[in-house]
Amino acid sequence: MYSLLKKVLCACVLFCAILLLTSCSSAAVYSKGGNRPAKSVHQPKETAAVPKGKSSYMVTSWYGNAYHGKQTASGEIFNMYDYTAAHKTLPFGTKLKLINELNNKEVVVTVNDRGPFIKGRDLDVSYKTAQTLDFAGLGVCKLKVIYLD
Q: Looking at the domain that runs over 55-147, which CATH code has it been given?
């Protein structure tokens, strides 16, 4: 009798432990496109107000082939040949005029993603944007940013 009670008690403890461990896990839901979550885990708690007409300088990097065709945080599909950008807090759809003051080249981009997630960087742009501003070979460049809307 004692042996049967001991086996039942062990089974109950084991069942409760498994239930507790599996209920504490969190799993990201991945899109068909690959390694990015279907819903961004990088959504800011609050988006920044857009200071229309004002300008600032941002350390800017670019991203391309590794994310081409994959879903952005806004839900759009990333196209490395479009003029787009990723920012940590600016609202999706914000238009920014970017100027490379080293060569006076400029382009207008639309924020449609979150990032960059590397310390010291303020903005990520598509490959096409970096190519147009002539810093794709450098990887990182300080750009003048004018907030349009």
A: 2.40.40.10
